[in-house]
User: Fold this.
Amino acid sequence: MTGAAREPVTAAVTGLGLVTAAGIGVKDTWDRVTNATTPRGVRRPAALRDLPCDFMYTIDGLDLDIDAVLGVASHRLMDRFAQLAVVAAREAVADAGLGPDVWDSTRVAVVVGSAHGGLDFYAEQHATLTERGARRVSPRLAPLSVVNGAAGSVARDLGTRGPSLAVATACSSGTDAIGTALHLLRAGACDIAVAGGAESMCTRAVFAGTCNAKALSTRTADPAAACRPFDVDRDGFVVGEGAGMLVLERAEHARARGARSRAAVRGYGATTSSEASSPVAPSEAGVELALRAALADAQVAPGDVGHVNAHGTSTVMNDLVEGAVLHRVLGEGPLVTSTKSMTGHTLGAAGGIEAAFTVLALEEQLVPGTVNLRTQDPRVPVEVAPTTRSVRLDCAVTTSLGFGGHNSVLVLARE
Assistant:
């Protein structure tokens, strides 16, 4: 750690919750991510039929009955992305040993990131408008399709009365939600924050446009092997759905109630690549600024970072830009992975899911492998783990890069 005078204000991570195509719940997901050699949950939804990319990672077929968990009435008041957020938030809060009978609800914040919100429901209702007329459009369209639907649903479900915020910075949304929660805790606006990301998007028009932008894999003959971050044969990302939620607390608040701290969020950095040539092109300069800002905020030296859970989308440009920046700033020390190879690219949920994985890596001293990595692209100058590896970790970084030039980084440390 650096020798600066001030002590960084950290947030204790006291709870985790996960819903992903790799597994339902933290234990199931982590076991699969660290032990499996092939992903599961890769399916071909009917909505994507005949598109160049007709597959995605989904939770369909896994052990989650949303109606049974949330109740049919509650289910009808939420879009699928909000439902996943609530399921993950419930697990995280239970893991933290918190709830309405324990906390002061006015001192609990909720911050949830999403890139698309309830876009599928919006598209469905737009089709209804076109085909059946205005009187057939659901009165639930506005509340179910808005991006803040997950944040509001989580707050209502948990009965919290502190700030409830939605963050929409494309694929950086989940990371920025956690960074925003860190700022709220530091500012004294809350004692506890439930933060992360949620996404469920299978909108045909978006998939078609993203295919045309050459960003999605078209490996239709072998979709389970399509997401291959940092591999020389990668050809694009594969969309996934899911949610990852963390409970963050002011460190003194967690200590006062005798809570277990699974890890600490020490620093956060966010920048915009305004110099990028297009809204979908990552910029080395912007990513580097965000990484250096997060390290400075955490008062962590580059050499202290032992692991990076990379954005690692499996697109040619992203992996080259990110690999170059990680090597330039952090050197050859950190062991890099992309867990998107097991979850798919969950868009606005990715930052929450990958922050949870980074907490677990620190806690278990275990770096998950990058499934489908057969031959690392020689132009990527960092060590990417193809298989799960035991390592000594005290500090780790997770990165997120979003369309629009958003770059976000979290620094986490072992407790």
